[in-house]
Amino acid sequence: MAPTTDISYAPRPVATGAETTPFASAEEAWFWFIQAQQARNDGARFSMGLGLFARPCEPLDILRVVERLYRNRRLIMDHLLVLRHYGRRMMPPDPCRVREARAHTLWTEALERIEPVLCRKGIVRDRFFNLIQTHMEAAE
Predict the structure, then answer these.
(1) Which of 35, 60, 104, 107 has the greatest count of CB atoms below 10 A from its CB?
(2) How many Å apart are CA 30 and CA 40, to the nearest integer?
């Protein structure tokens, strides 16, 4: 009998031969996830590799990460409500607005907890990679 591996939380591979483009940040991945879920709720069917960029995951992979963090009590319901509300608005909470100050704190905390997991899975590029790329572009 072949050894079994737990692939339920690993991102599903994109069709062979396709170059994948990881997200630059957890925030970008979250907005992509919200858009994909909204399209799905509106009746669209999601197929990997048909978008503008081939992504290294499916929307459900991001949902699984968030669900696992919630089950492990790294995220609380307030985090999820803020992520959903501002994700649907497609803009993060503004820290300069008094009414959005707490939401901004929750938004930042949630994404700081989600990002390392997405980086380990190859869904989001490491911040160090982004810093080097930005520096190289500025030098050109």
Answers:
(1) 107
(2) 15
pLDDT of residue 107: 98
End-to-end Cα, the chain, rounded Å: 55
Between CA 39 and CA 74 the distance in angstroms is: 28
Number of other residues whose CB lies within 10 A of the CB of residue 105: 14
Instruction: Confirm if 30 and 114 have CB atoms less than 8 A apart.
Output: yes
Q: Which of 44, 27, 14, 134 lies closest to 91, judged by CA?
A: 27
Domain ranges of the chain: 26-42+56-139
Mean pLDDT by 10 residues, the chain (140 residues): 46 53 93 93 68 80 97 98 97 96 98 96 80 66
